[in-house]
Amino acid sequence: MVSDWSFVSVDMELTNSCLCDCLICPREAIVRPTGFMTEETFDTLSDKLVREGSLITFSGMGDPLFHPMVFDWIKSVRLNGGAIGIVVNPTSLHGHNSRKLVDARPNSITLSFPSLQKKIFEQLCPNISFPVALSRSMELIGLARGDVGLRIQGVLTDRNRGETEHFVSYWKGLGVPSSMVACHGRGGNLRKPGIYTPESLEIFSGRCGLFSLHTFVTWEGEVLSCCHDLTGSTRIGTLITEDVSLIAERKQGLNKKDSLPFSVCRQCDEPLRRCVLPQGSPPVGKKERNRFFREVSRSGRVFKNV
Ligand code: SF4
Ligand code: SF4
């Protein structure tokens, strides 16, 4: 049973390396250490999180499919009775990766597909052509059908406002649920011009729903405020040596304040920070957790990062 709301959903960063060069990603500004999660770290983290009953999602500021152990580790979490999701992008679905991913049987796959407009897509994802990305996505859809839950996530930037209706109906026609999320500044780290208009910081001051309902752990096992922390300065603790309950307690302590004490939060226009913490205790089992996520998804409050 999950002891605290902040551990219902945990993003696990297998690596903060990536071969893509997405325009909406500030990854090049990372100054905390870069690397790949070791087997020892994964075993420690997954033991604790599976025991806790957290939904683990391989994502973060890097490409989980770039990690050589990704498929084995998905299988391992499932074998140990845990729930696992993964966020992928078409650039990494080369070779037999879609087949390997589906064969590993994650509980869910979120495919990032920023836009259905060829020109916009290729501006946002310069390392892959639109036709190749679409064909790889179709392959994944075909392989996942009936076996693995798949959803597609697009991004609304200043260049493709108004795309949502077409986007959702296109994927719906293929039997795949989808949504588009507003591009935001990733804690003030996204500085490329002409992609999005920063929201008023006043609107977003105060507490953070994402922080309350979610935990982010780096490839080194460090718990940070969220994946927008590119410096490591928001460190809350480490899941290598500390218990989930201790980290949860620290997060609860921070949540009692009127606002989070981290400078990255003061420049953050992440829409998910407006999520409201539900009343009562966190879900007691898998069924309740799944119901919670269905409700969250219906209300538009999704947890996955692009
Ligand atoms: S958005 Fe994801 S896939 Fe794109 S460059 Fe950043 S980490 Fe890589
Ligand atoms: S306010 Fe923004 S930067 Fe701070 S924890 Fe929430 S999402 Fe992360």
Secondary structure blueprint with pairings:
Blueprint: E1 9-12, H1 39-52, E2 55-58, H2 70-79, E3 83-88, H3 97-104, E4 108-112, H4 118-124, H5 130-144, E5 149-156, H6 164-173, E6 178-182, H7 209-212, E7 215-217, E8 222-224, E9 237-238, H8 244-255, H9 263-266, H10 286-298
Parallel strand pairs: 1-2, 1-7, 2-3, 3-4, 4-5, 5-6
Antiparallel strand pairs: 7-8, 8-9
Helix pairs in contact: 2-3
Bound molecules: iron/sulfur cluster (SF4) (2 copies).
One iron/sulfur cluster is lined by residues 18, 20-22, 25, 27, 61-63, 89, 306.
Question: Strand portion, in percent?
Answer: 5-15%
Global geometry: globular
The whole-number mean of residue pLDDT values reads 91
Largest sheet: 9 strands, mixed
Poorly predicted regions are 302-306
Order of helices and strands: EHEHEHEHHEHEHEEEHHH
